[in-house]
Design goal:
globular, 6 helices, mainly alpha, 434 Repressor (Amino-terminal Domain), 116 residues, single chain
Length: 116
């Protein structure tokens, strides 16, 4: 069976709107897309600049893979922003949802008496 490459027509609409992220990975992906586009880089440019594969960059941007701290730091260095600002922006996009879903850690249930 012959292989036919799909030709994308110039008049095809591409959705640029991004929906609200459901996970922290998706939120982080949207943040790195925003910075990449601000610098005018393609995914391939980002992959070459960071030394990561094009597939991995795409997975990070879609939120299907979790970035390691080293990866996040590499991206922050390339974008010339602090690692904290990338994470803060992702958290803001998420709306602090994950933090609200989890019960806060408290000292309840722990005995303050010393065992002898």
């Amino acid at each position: 069976m012959p292989y036919f490459a799909l030709q994308v027509g110039k008049d095809w609409r591409v959705s640029k709107g991004r929906k609200k992220p459901a996970t922290l990975e998706q939120a982080f992906g949207q943040v790195i897309i925003r910075y990449r586009e601000k610098l005018g880089l393609s995914q391939m440019d980002l992959a070459v600049a960071t030394g990561y594969s094009l597939r991995y960059v795409g997975d990070l941007e879609r939120g299907t893979k979790s970035a390691t701290l080293r990866t996040m730091n590499d991206l922050a260095t390339l974008y010339k922003v602090s690692l904290g600002s990338l994470l803060t922006e992702a958290d803001a996009l998420l709306g602090g949802k994950e933090r609200q879903d989890k019960t806060p850690v408290s000292g309840k249930g722990r005995s303050t008496k010393r065992r002898e």
